[in-house]
Design brief:
With about 190 residues, the protein is of the alpha/beta class. The chain is built from 5 helices and 10 strands. α4 runs parallel beside α5.
Length: about 190
């Protein structure tokens, strides 16, 4: 259904944004999604990509563009150093296959507070399993109301994924409304 609905070129890009909007791209990969958002809305974009080779692509792609701020770390539930598998667009700390690289994660709630970020118009989360810990931390930190839209891809390979997703969605529904839902593909939550 996602493919027949052209979700990658419609659902993931159609938001009420402009040049003053703040967008967070968690799991920037090669910067394609951020580039599409930039070309469409000219918003200020923070890209978080901990894998060196992908980070290098992002910095090259947006060199000299002051609207895009790339960071060579991921955001998560805590500051930590992890090993990640290097498997192109499914590189994950949950996968033990393939080459590995050491990456850094920073606690998202602390990043937001220390950088005096009051509102984020759109946050895209595609962090290959880390979305559960991240969202659970934002919920426990009472920071969900800082996000106008939360576009998230939940992954099935995380232990307890169905139950954890259901609990996160229950908490999200208190402050946000579901605008689209393609189960374990993409979903978006908009602030009420």
């Amino acid at each position: 259904r996602w493919i027949s609905d052209s979700g990658d070129s419609t659902k993931r890009l159609e938001y009420t944004l402009d040049e003053n909007s703040i967008v967070f791209d968690l799991g920037g990969y090669k910067g394609e999604w951020a580039e599409n958002i930039l070309n469409r809305y000219n918003s200020k974009i923070f890209i978080f990509e901990p894998v060196q080779s992908f980070f290098d692509i992002i910095t090259s792609k947006f060199a000299g563009n002051t609207k895009v701020n790339p960071f060579k770390f991921g955001l998560g539930a805590q500051d930590e150093t992890l090993e990640i598998s290097l498997t192109t667009d499914s590189s994950s700390t949950f996968n033990t296959e393939g080459d590995r690289e050491t990456i850094q994660l920073k606690k998202m709630s602390e990043f937001i507070l220390s950088n005096n970020i009051d509102n984020i118009d759109l946050m895209k989360i595609n962090i290959e399993g880390g979305e559960y810990d991240l969202l659970e931390d934002l919920i426990s930190s009472n920071l969900l109301i800082k996000f106008k839209n939360i576009q998230v891809q939940f992954h099935r390979f995380v232990p307890g994924c169905v139950e954890r997703r259901n609990k996160i969605r229950e908490e999200l529904s208190k402050t946000h409304e579901l605008t689209y839902d393609y189960e374990f593909i993409w979903e978006n939550w908009q602030l009420k």
